[in-house]
Amino acid sequence: MKFIFVLGIVALATTQVYAESRLESITHKGQLDVCTTGDYKPYSFLKADGQYEGTDISMAESLAQSLGVKTHYIKSTWKTITPDLVAGKCDIAMGGISVTLARQRQVFFSHRIDIDGKVPFVRCNDSQKYQTVEQINTPSVRVIEPTGGTNEAFARKYLPNSKLTLSQDNLGIFQQLADNKADVMITEASEALYQKKHYPTLCAINTDKPLQYGEKSYMLPINDMAWKLYVDQWLHLAQETGEYQKILNTWF
């Protein structure tokens, strides 16, 4: 009798976990809620007309299509995107998100999307001056980073002696570099290479040997394995069929 009772509890718990999965609730509400910052080209960018675009925005549309639902984007920031997901404001967070152990303590990550790494982004004329952490980590070097993300965390940990400025305008940083209002931005090689097309006087340093190894992924609510397994399989198929590469090719 005790064995039957235990089985009943396990079955009930399994049913409750399944019922609470985003996989089911997204289908029922007919909408995929996506947290994104909208300030990180080429991954996520909020245009003046209120529409989002970017590689991860296209991937969000693909994920929603696979579920037969529409997308709904929730504007977030690098400082609040993890708390927003944890608070249940969205089903998934997308937009060039770096995998970190600090985030891993609070969320699930999907399978890896890309390998990326942090590099200095500087005026091309100063390329030789800012090759290493040691060269950048001096009081005379003006480092600028967006508030709240892994770039700020890198600067605070490895560049404590530099003159750090934090910006609420992630996309405006590149013009400040070009205008000699700052010297160095530490960012992912992918962003630097993309922005190089729009700011030809700026150069990404040693993209083949980044200052810090990194991976990009999508953030998912913790302890929802049904939803994570679905997203992982969808991502796997998108990568293996060439859908993801096709999206990348439109931006890089």
TrEMBL record:
Residues 31-252 form the Solute-binding protein family 3/N-terminal domain. InterPro entries: Solute-binding_3/MltF_N. It comes from the Bacteria. Residues 1-19 form the signal peptide. Gene3D superfamilies: Periplasmic binding protein-like II. Keywords: Signal. It holds the Pfam family SBP_bac_3. Belongs to the bacterial solute-binding protein 3 family. This is Cyclohexadienyl dehydratase. It comes from Acinetobacter boissieri. The lineage of its organism: Bacteria, Pseudomonadati, Pseudomonadota, Gammaproteobacteria, Moraxellales.
